[in-house]
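Render this sequence as a predicted structure.
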Amino acid sequence: MRPLIRLAPIACTLLIASCAKPPPNLSAAPQLSLAPEALRPCALHVLPAAPTLADLEIGYVTRGANLVACDAARRLAVETHQAQQALAAAERR
């Protein structure tokens, strides 16, 4: 009876190890790269210290153009992120 008691821990280890499953093979989902425009911070026009009426008009138009470009870069980053998430979800299926 004594020799079987010494083998009990080995038998338990083998039984437990045989039940363990290897981790699933998760290959990395395809990575999309962001466009450089989406990575750059947005630049906004700043008025000079003593602005004239012409400076205000130029600043108004320039700032509007900067906001449109910044929104386009943000939209590009969001679309890239959504496409990457869709690829990762398709990869998981």
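Summary. The two ends are 52 Å apart (CA to CA). The helical segments are 2-19, 36-39, 53-92.
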